[in-house]
Amino acid sequence: MSDSQAGDHTASSVEASTEVFVGYRELLFSIVYNLLGTVADTDDVLQETWLSWSAKKSRSPHEEIDNPRAYLVRIAVNHALARKAAVKRRRETYVGPWLPEPLVTRGAAEEEPVAEPAHRALQSESVSMALMVVLETLSPLERAVFVLHDVFGYAHAEIAGILDRNPSSVRQLAHRARAHVQARRPRYQADPYVQQRVTERFIDAALGGDLGLLMEMLAPDVTMWTDGGGKVRTAGLRPVIGREKVCRLLAGYAGRTPKDLDIHYRHVNGDPSAVVFSEDSPYAVLVMDLSPDSDQVRGIYAVVNPDKLARVRSGESSETTEPSETTESSEPSEPSENEV
What is the pTM of this model? Predict the structure, then answer.
């Protein structure tokens, strides 16, 4: 084979491997985001996954991988688990309640097609903000098993191959994770129309300081989490529990909010929610969690940390970055033993 032919073959091989990776990127993003809860970490893991995948294809360009989807998921999940230690260290020093970075998509009133991979994946495999908070209390392996099995429908035997564990161990992890999640928050999907209406009424009552309506809308044991990351003075340092305490907190907010707020009703992690802007800059994302036996609000998740709102735009959905094929400062990483 001549040098030019070899070059053409290498180029076509790189193009083919890139097409395969891009074809599964939506799935990989959704799985990894549900494991880590931040877009930045998810993008980093996808970049690492691409480097591992391209390194494998470069070393063995003629070797066919029977199941690229399974291979890529295995690489991505193991990279995500390896990153969990660093993520945990950051959480331990985080100021105030930690909430997942919100993924915002257009709501029913803004039904233009959304092209970002994160959003297309979320439309089919959504994990609510409330459930994401519960998943933070699981061990990394329990969370991986729960996400892969209960959210994405992987069989225990498939998960065993991904995590390099035996199937019986995976079944035990799945049982513990499911019992823990069920005890903390029974899985319940509110009617989207009802959730949208409750969210709109809540925003009107909160901004208008209507304590009577708030008392009517909130469940007695409602909890409000406000994630300011230590960068927003009005954000509390711990969750507020109880209807009267939450009402007092909201009444205090009503008197201090800017007057030029612009409310957009979007979907956040798959749920109808409110995205609040001030002078075209993101101000807050508010997600309501409803009681399964009533339309009362049992959980309020408010993300006001500006770092977590950086991808939220008033005229479009939040963005995610596409991983490049190469990085200026990184060499392709070697897959770990669990990835091959």
Answer: 0.83
